Amino acid sequence: MKVRLAFCDVNVIVLITLPESGRMASVSADRKSLTPEEARRLFRVDELNVPSTSGICIDHEQGNLVMVDAKYADEFAEFCCQNPAPCPVLYRSAPGEFRAPPLANNSDVRTDVQRYCVFTHGERSATTSLSRYDWDNVVTFYVGCSFGLEHLLLSRGVPVRHMEQTVTVPMFKTSVMTRPIGVFRGPLVVSMRPMPEEHLASAVNASRLLPMSHGMPVHIGHPSWIGIGSGAGSDLRPCFGDAVRCEVGDVHVFWACGVTTSVALGNAGLDLCFSHYPGSMFICDSISRPDATIDASRTLEVVKYSTPRLPVVYSVLSTEVRRQVEQLEKIILRDPGQRGVGHLAVDGSLLMAALSLSSRHKRVAVATGFPCVPEPPYEETDGIMGAIALVRALHALGAEEVVLLCDAHALRLYRSVVDFCLAEGTLARPIAVRTVSDAAGDAEIESDVAAFDHLVAIERVSPNEHGQYRSMAGRDLSAHCSPVDRWFTAALKNRSVMTTGIGDGGNEVGMANVGERVAEFVPLGKEIASAVHVDHLVSAGVSNWGGYALAAAIYALQACPEHSCYSRYGLGEHRPPDADRFLPTAKREERLLEKLNEMQVWDGARPDQKMSVDGYLFHDIHTKMISTIRAAVGH
Fold first, then answer.
1. What does the pLDDT look like over 230-251, one tens digit per residue?
2. Cα separation of 96 and 98, whole Å?
3. Number of neighbouring beta carbons within 10 Å of residue 210
4. What average pLDDT does the chain have?
5. pLDDT digits (tens, 9 = 90+) for 565-576
6. CB 48 within 8 A of CB 115
7. Three-state SS string across 390-457, please?
8. Burial of 377 (C-beta count, 10 Å sphere; 0-12/13-18/19+)
9. 352: Cβ–Cβ under 8 A, 6 or more apart, which residues?
């Protein structure tokens, strides 16, 4: 008897060749009507041919397969441990074992899959059976598959486009590299299931309950953020599987994929090893059920943090953490001097900035410096303290490179500040201090900016619409200002570089976002208003507070296990962040302010006043603000 299956909407059309007559007969059956054992038996005798196993035995677990010589088994097992989202191990066999008792009765991994990959010194070929190979020393890893979560998506009303279109789920190699172990290494492979935006939260909250089927998505948004193709919607060409048609309004959603293991096998260059063929899974008897150890009542939210100029991108966080960050935003808008900073606030901007940095933080430039003090070195105490606090948090986050940008006249000063912070243990490692030359051409600046993921300005003086740099009192500061703002202007033309501005008065980089409000509510607003825009503007009563709050918001996000997993693309393990490495303390800030005063860096509003920032004495106002920020995130 020969059998062929074809998908037709919610049903399977089974075409059967009747042995006595040779004619074809067809019977329509529900997808669940074929049991796992029946499917494996048909694969075993090569009598079942399907585009992929998606939709077959839909509520059962399915497994990717990796089969290696026993001497590499421990190494591969560690690779799986270090890359849990793409490599959740359902079962590891003993050497020579071709059955999988915990997963399937009467199974034979050498024959019970439709197609296999054979790797010989890294070269891949395909076969329908592995029975001819010596199996005595082979260890098989059964690795979870996202096909096992599709029934849960469907039950929540989430459309699954490749099932609707009867094609194999599209799979892509990304620019995200797995954690290498021994000979096993390579890019993260993801599967894509586009869906309308209104279904994103349902998809995330459903799939997170099934970690052995890859769990929740590892990227939501434009494919280019993870190095996939042109990102032009339906013309995406998958590395494995079939192209899927996106409907109007669909968002690209990517899950970690077990084909990551096949790519790692090919890269290992072993003499001989095997895997399943992408889309052709081992079907288990075990039902795909939510993990009982996961709190299903915990609600996750999906938040878009890209601005219209950028390719769309979303992040994941808990409702609790979102509320913490919203509280931080309110806290830093306190205005003891009644300067009206609340008029300049943009609701939700702190969360957007924190999500941007939490996800895009490998290379960050932090710009600061407002030369408003009449005497050399001209610098004020607001800005640099918040910048150092943010740099410390970025180091704790795992940033590979952080650069401090300032005016040319202040290079020596800021390098001395960095040296002091290193000696005090405030900074964990050195950072470069740079400026932007007046002579730099557009091409040079654009090239420099392209090397970074994110630019942040904290109390960084900005030119007005006439190109003049002015203080709050309208004094022209241009003679002391380097064109650091040109980096931010150039970044707005680069669709892979994000920008954040933090300010408190209206004349800082980024305040152009609320330029009309600056003109209306700030004294001399029309004269001093910034002309430089950013993606996310954080307003604060004192700019240092904005830096402290951004560091605290990043900490809160990293303390959220689901956000931590998402921001790591499901690689590595979640480790609760060390609050001391992320959050400011009154003691550290006091020591830094004392050193700044020793360096003749004074309060820009009250140059005659020591241990003061923006007109407020440190021990009266700023220590209380630091304590309040820490308390908002549980410390």
1. 544 445 899 999 999 999 999 9
2. 6
3. 24
4. 92
5. 999 999 999 999
6. no
7. HHHHHHHHCCCEEEEECCHHHHHHHHHHHHHHHHHCCCCCCCEEECCCCCCCHHHHHHHHHCCCEEEE
8. middle
9. 305, 535, 536
